[in-house]
Amino acid sequence: MRLPRRFPLLAALAAGAWYLRAVYRFRDPVRLPPADQSGAGAVLSPADGLVSFVRRIEDGQVNGQNVAKLLGTPQRDGWLLGLYVGPLDVHFTYAPVGGTVISAGKRDGTRQGLPLAETARLLAGQPVDLLGSAAVRSNERYSYAVQGEGGQPVTVGLIAPGAGLQAVTYLDEGQTVRQGNKAAFLAEGGLVLLALPGSVTPQVSVGERVRGAETVVAC
Question: Can you give the pTM of this predicted structure?
Answer without folding.
Answer: 0.89
